[in-house]
Design goal:
Helices cover about 45% and strands about 10% of the residues. It has 19 helices and twelve strands. The longest helix has 16 residues, at about 15-30. The mean pLDDT is about 90. It binds one RNA strand of 78 nucleotides through helix 4, strand 7, helix 5, strand 12 and helix 10.
Length: about 450
RNA sequence: GUCCCUAUCGUCUAGUUCGGCCUAGGACACCGGCCUUUCAAGCCGGCGACUCGGGUUCAAAUCCCGAUGGGGACGCCA
């Protein structure tokens, strides 16, 4: 059975790149009827924070990615790593290194200056004898020669010369394990069959493979997916806008849209653009993943979000929109809310924007946009509004046909165009020059509110 | 500096495995038109790319080599 994992470190928010890696792992596992494991790599105790772990968990849940096993925390598994590190030491695959941080820093600087690669010079590799009073780290004995090659599931053959690799620290002075070691131990012990991760890990792969071999573990398959870049073609970071997954939630994006977008970043299935979660599981596979980095394109995400706002069931949109309405200080009548959404679908690209647009449907007082008032709430418009108000009071029904007849009659009587009558009304009711269809607005607002707002608009002209 | 990865419209990509069906397809964005009570949406149309140079071949976006561009990695971070 295929087993994949997502192994973030809780040293920051779950960002778009991480989320996509998680998504690919999850889709790959689901596609092959396998299992998806979540593991939190919190071996850096300085920088790991519980709030980030929570953020990662919440983010994945929001996106709709559910892990089958875990979350496992590396901080609870330290004995395991120590045990295997000691085993390597015993079997001659690792050694104690007494070099101090300062010495190493010095050596590196010198090497770089002389145009050499800044890797560890293996001073302690062949030293014999203990130095009981000195602190030490345990380093892995990387083979000195030969090549390490592997078949990458998205890139094909990749090989490295062993002399490019240096002897990595696997246990720190304080006996805590380091990343390249824990990842090997855990992936092996957890039975991970396919490691799908960002291509920034390609360089780590040969180092890890030699450890798998020394530990006599089965080497898993690797697939390195390209990183996501910002507009400047550099790795995505804070300055590229919303980078935490949950920020997209707060900004009014739908998880359906984000999942669809993320999946299409670096992966394609012919010319298809729209994929439900089920379709993604059915169609996703590693051979279709591209090799070059993709640039995050907000416009396309917005387009997809817009698409899902229009196509998901209104009830679902209502449920998702409610918190945004609440954030603006309003509560919506469920029936009315559905009506409002139907009129705003196709106009708003995000839930946040939709709530903003829906604002005038709520509350008693509305504010006029100054440009709108200046242009349409004019002395010239006053008689039209008065006439409308007068006739509207007598209107027996708010259905579109009755309303249309009324507005058209006024238009004809004044020798105007439809737009000349409707715009002042629109501003009177919404405060803005742009709104959903005016008859729909009137219907949603209801007779009383319409009358009061027209009265107020007339009074405002004065 | 060294190593590794990568290269089709502005962006995401199809096509590359098995060279001809590619005068390179789709989508986003952009521009124009239609529709129209505003704004959107929708519909129709337009702009727009095989990084470059050598090969191989009757034929190359597709295969080979090189250059260049871009990215990543070189931590007692993950």
């Amino acid at each position: 059975m295929i087993r994949t994992r997502f192994a973030p470190s809780p040293t920051g928010q779950l960002h778009i790149g991480g989320a996509r890696t998680a998504l690919f792992n999850w889709l790959f596992a689901k596609h092959h009827k396998g299992s998806f494991v979540l593991r939190i790599e919190d071996t850096d105790r300085e920088r790991s924070r519980d709030e980030y772990t929570r953020g990662i968990l919440d983010g994945l849940a929001w996106l709709g990615i559910a892990h089958d096993e875990g979350p496992f925390f590396q901080s609870t598994r330290t004995e395991l790593y120590t045990e295997h590190a000691l085993r390597l030491l015993r079997e001659g695959h690792a050694y104690k290194c007494y070099c101090s941080v300062e010495e190493l820093e010095e050596k590196k600087k010198r090497a770089l200056k002389e145009g050499q690669k800044p890797s560890y010079d293996r001073t302690c590799r062949d030293k014999t004898g203990e130095q009981p009073d000195k602190p030490y780290v345990i380093r892995f004995k990387t083979p000195l020669s030969g090549t390490v090659a592997f078949h990458d599931l998205v890139r094909g053959e990749i090989s490295f010369q062993c002399d490019e690799l240096d002897d990595l620290i696997i246990l720190r002075t304080d006996r805590t394990p380091t990343y390249n070691f824990t990842v090997v131990v855990d992936d092996a012990l957890m039975g991970i069959t396919h490691i799908i991760r960002g291509d920034d890990h390609i360089n780590n792969t040969p180092r890890q493979i030699v450890m798998y071999e020394a530990l006599k573990f089965t080497v898993p398959r690797f697939g390195h997916v390209p990183l996501i870049h910002g507009k400047d073609r550099a790795r995505l970071s804070k300055r590229h806008g919303a980078t935490s997954l949950l920020e997209y939630s707060d900004d009014g994006f739908l998880p359906e849209a984000l999942m669809n977008y993320l999946a299409r970043l670096g992966w394609a299935h012919g010319d298809d653009e729209i994929f439900s979660k089920e379709e993604l599981i059915e169609k996703f596979d590693l051979p279709n993943v591209g090799k070059s980095p993709a640039i995050f394109d907000m416009d396309k995400l917005l387009w997809l979000n817009d698409h899902y706002i229009k196509s998901l069931p209104v009830e679902l949109i209502a449920e998702r929109l409610t918190p945004f309405i609440a954030a603006l200080g309003h509560t919506a009548d469920p029936v009315k809310l559905i009506q409002i959404i139907r009129n705003l679908q196709g106009r708003a690209k995000t839930l946040k924007e939709m709530a903003q647009m829906a604002r005038f449907f709520f509350g008693e007082e509305i504010e006029y946009e100054s440009a709108a008032k200046a242009k349409f709430l004019t002395p010239a418009a006053r008689p039209i509004l008065e006439r409308f108000l007068n006739d509207f009071r007598e209107l027996p029904s708010l259905d579109e046909a009755s309303q249309r007849l009324l507005v058209e009659t006024i238009t004809k009587d004044y020798g105007k165009k439809l737009v000349d009558v409707i715009q002042p009304i629109r501003v009177a009711l919404s405060g803005k020059v742009a709104s959903p269809g005016i008859f729909e607005v009137i219907d949603i607002l209801g007779k009383d509110v319409v009358e009061r707002r027209i009265e107020r608009a007339i009074a405002s002209i004065a």
